[in-house]
Amino acid sequence: MGPLRALVLTAGCVATAARAADRVEITHTAMGTTFRIMLYAEASAPAAAAAGRAFAEMDAVEAALSDYRSDSAIARLGAAAGGAALPVSPLTAEALRAARRFAEETQGAFDPTVAPVVQLWRAARASGRLPPADAARAAFALVGWRELEVGEQTARLARVGMRLDLGGIGKGFACDRALASLRGAGFARALVAAGGDHAAGDPPPGELGWRIRIDESGPVLTVSRCGVSTSGDSVQHADIGGRRYSHIIDPRTGRPVEGMGFVTVIAENATASDALATALSVLGPEAGLALATRRPATRARIRWRAGAETRTVTTPGFDTPTVPDMFRFLPGTVEVTLAGRPFTTYRYANSDGTPLRRPFFSPVLADDGTPVTADQLTAGGDHPHHRSLWVGHGDVNGTDHWGTNDRTPGGPRQLPRGLPVVEGNA
At a CB cut-off of 8 Å and minimum separation 6, what does 369 contact? Predict the structure, then answer.
């Protein structure tokens, strides 16, 4: 993932003294970028200590996965390529298994063995000259994710000259490790951001999620308990001979991606969103959108250049607040009517892909008939139709549920009036 920046919009202030639900924000430099931790805590000192442990996780990831360090775990694997398997740490094995899994899922659009080609094009970007054809062919011949072998705590590259580059997954992986550390320390309301990669924990107090503006032309996303990653060539690219070559390499051809602007992916965690943002950049709008649409708990926005024109496509419900472990979006929309007013909403299934018991959902209303707002009700708990009760940011909210559950702020309670079941046509 390149050093893209996404603006995180949050309520509250940076905590400097003990006060309920203060926002603490701390930064740390690692992996060639600035990591930010934002969390909510009653006291700043314990939060700062927890953030320090989370930053140590990031440093450990950098020590294992950096392709700029000759002493990293993946550099040692490259130096031993073609030989026997080497022992690796649990952290390294976890990252390599994830990389290989996404390579298989994307049929090679993401490939952690693309390093020889990446290194060749880094030199081209620095020199302003295209790589020699024979060097490009030789580098491309060393790419092949199937030849990365990963055991429980061992790993091996099958052929001499192979190298690893986990730049398309490493920062997301580091964000996830840091967020898990914060959660383990009791700070679940947290967001970890590194350039274009974000690992979102539980929402800020009184909010449906963390608000992230992905780029100047994109919407503000409201997310929680998921990963968000944006990849693109706005910062890292080479202009050679009047053409723009992205820093992202298509592992299937050995050539840089051309024509892609921004790809943003929302997925189950930042490791997944990081790898998939890279893969969708390679696949392009049609195949990329198809992959994101059929994949559970995944949404995407793809922006690309078609001549002088810039085009954008998204999966259904891309900018709708994200409440993971609850439901997934299906293609198409539903038109419903409430109090004589038309609304458009999306179709859903459970997050495991199984159909909801009721195919559409009904608005949650207050006593005066207006929709309940996001700060009055949030996600959580189980109920018969969805895995949790959700209230969105628009005019159509919730389900045919008549109360809230024990994870709603203030505890379970009965809503002030019954809810009409309003269904539409798919």
Answer: 339
Q: Please state the pTM of the whole predicted model.
A: 0.73
Q: 255 has which bridge partners? A: 250
Partners of residue 156 on adjacent β-strands: 149
Q: Are 70 and 78 in contact (CB under 8 A)?
A: no
Q: Are 54 and 37 in contact (CB under 8 A)?
A: yes
Q: Which residues of 325-362 are buried (b: 16+ CB within 10 A; e: fewer)?
A: ebbbbbeeebebebeeeebebbbbbbbeeeebeeebbb
Whether 143 contacts 251, CB under 8 Å: yes
**Angle 426-293-148 from CA coordinates, rounded to 5°:** 160
Give dist(CA 299, CA 276) in Å, integer. Answer: 10
Task: Average pLDDT across each block of 10 residues of the chain; the chain has 426 residues. List them in order.
Answer: 46 38 90 94 92 97 95 97 97 97 96 95 83 94 97 96 96 97 95 94 82 79 91 67 78 87 91 96 93 90 84 84 49 48 47 45 39 34 28 28 33 33 28
CA–CA distance, 15 with 200 (Å, rounded to integer): 19
Strand partners, 239: 244
CA distance 257 to 2: 14
Residue 133 contacts by C-beta under 8 Å, 6 or more apart in sequence?
none
Quick check: 249 and 255 in contact, CB under 8 A?
yes
Give ∠ CA 95-275-81 in degrees, rounded to 5: 50
Tokens coding 342: 């038309």
State how far the Cα of 425 lies from the Cα of 260, in Å rounded to an integer: 36
3-state secondary structure of 184: helix
Q: For residues 133 and 57, is the Cβ–Cβ distance under 8 A?
A: no
